[in-house]
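Lab meeting minutes (informal)
Scribe: AK
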Amino acid sequence: MNKTAALNTHRLHCLDWLRVIAIGVLMLYHTAMVYVPDWGFHYKNPLDSDHIKSLMLLTSPWRMGLLWLVSGIALAYMCNSHNVLKLVVKRTNQILLPLLIGVLFIVPLQLFAQMKQAGEMPLNFVGFVYAFFIQPQQYFVNYSSGIWPRFDVNHLWFLRSLWRFSMVLILISPIIKIDNAIKVTDWLSSRITYLLPLFLIPIFIIEWQLEGELVREYYGFVLLFLGFTLGARSAFWQTLIQHSRLLCILCILAMVALQIGFIEIWQTGLHQTNKRLALVINCIYILNKILPLFAILALSYQFLNKPNKTITQLNPFVFPLYILHQSIIIIVAYMASNGHVVLLKAPEYQLWINLVLTPLLCVILLLLISKFNSLRMCFGMRFKDNVDPYRSWQLSLLVLMICAPMIYKLV
């Protein structure tokens, strides 16, 4: 068996590491978003300091890109072990049932805190719940709907887009698997001079031609597609390892340039008056969307591609943690801001309290979820003893019917 074929049939243990790393980075980033000045978020209590922005810029450009790449690689492995129809049903249930649970019961917690801070919710939490589910009146007219009126996806937009894009890739997977397509993929993966433009050119086009949410959506699709087509090929990983030192140097240079550009151009407002400087800093930011990902993939494959008991135990909790974490961050911030302890009202103390309480509350909730198979399935986990809930066609059909209204809206 050649190296390419071997990689297609063997588990990439580094993906488990990358999932855990990605959710950790995302939790820290979303926690900081509550306290960073100027940058918009659902709930704010900003610190009187801009230094936190510089720290966030270390991960801001690529944090979601890592999730997209890992998801694309994982999907490629799923396509190798399932037929198209079965995978469409299974992946739909795996993504949309947790999305439905999140939209109905998790995201509204953020909306309550956001509306209370904006002075647009005169009701207490019980009154808010009644209004949200039973009698909305005019309370929610200023809040966009992510799926249904007032039912927003919020940070779960990733799951909504992941399902849509995954369906496209699954349906075209037979084309990607033909011999000529594989030969082209291996050829493109064989040299770093091919790989870098393959990632960078589409991202530059997206940044320059699109605006708003379309940028993040198509950035995600490009990385999901490239992870799907390249991530299961041995040539891709061998090229990354071969040039790991170069990729790390380019990554460091890009990050340093971004920090300098942020301080000297963005913070001073020069990008608003000087078009050339604006172009320079935008190009640097785009490079930071891709180059760190190459370095991370190369280093993880080189040093982390081996089984680890702790990472294996943590991996099933990544999906439910993604669903829960932002609502917990915001609720902790809201309760601290509106409590009776004067000391907790200072953002400096709140930040540290949130960094401690959010992981603690997440652990408690995750342990509770893990005790019941019904909750495990609702949050995208396998049953106890690592049993796939969707091996039963009856359960698969039932969940598909439950998700049918959401499928209709998303399609």
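Next up, CB showed the second protein from the same session:
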Amino acid sequence: MCVGANSIRPQMIILKDLLKIKIICNNKKKGLGIMLLEINDLCVNAEDKEILKGINLKINKGEIHVIMGPNGSGKTTTANAILNNPAYTKIGGNIIFDGQDITHEKTDEIARKGVFMSFQLPEEIPGVSVTNFLKYAKNKVTGEPVKIFAFKEELKKYMEELNMNPKYMERSLNVGFSGGEKKKNEILQMLVLNPKLAILDETDSGLDVDAIKTVSKGIEMFKNENNAVLIITHNTKILHSLKVDYVHVLVNGKIVKTGTQELAKEIEENGYSKYKN
């Protein structure tokens, strides 16, 4: 008995639908395609000056996003607004993180929910060792006691991966560190605290090629299917050794263009002039 094409077609449709469902279920198990951060029409002032003028951004688990733009465009303001830095005033919009509205939550509460931010200019803290700082921070984030010997072994492993001298773990935080070592120390903090969302603000600024490669390596070590990374930068150096999912161009307080890594290459060649207009 011959089976006609018309009788096969419904079976093929059902099979395709089942495959789609299986893929969706697998992705959900891995965390892929699940919204982690959603920013809706966010407007932010700093000292009564309007900086952000309606930002919209969605980041799924498993993704690396980049916000690029010229100096003064609102990149750092975006990062600080996510963590609700009190120096910035939200005048409109909201921020949803991992299914919860964090628009007006306190910074430490947002950090405990799993948001980490590295700084452009990391602070020096005399008298507090790298180990003690990270031990205290991990305890506050997880709410669990830190076993010091295992913790030091973890630190040593990460520091060696980042080409940092393990002896630095007993030095005061960032005191006497070079610019590159301070930035590596921020990546070290990210790896140890293991947040759901890592916001890296100008982590690549002032670094030589080798240091940028090390920072990129740290990001790759951190990234998995259940977390996400938001990189904020004004140039494309860090993208030479890192694959990202989306690039957003921020100009004058608004995201004016979103694309793939190819968009970053275009900006490297032509600059921001076309988007400023």
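CB comment: The first strand starts at residue 35 and ends at 46.
No objections, moving on.
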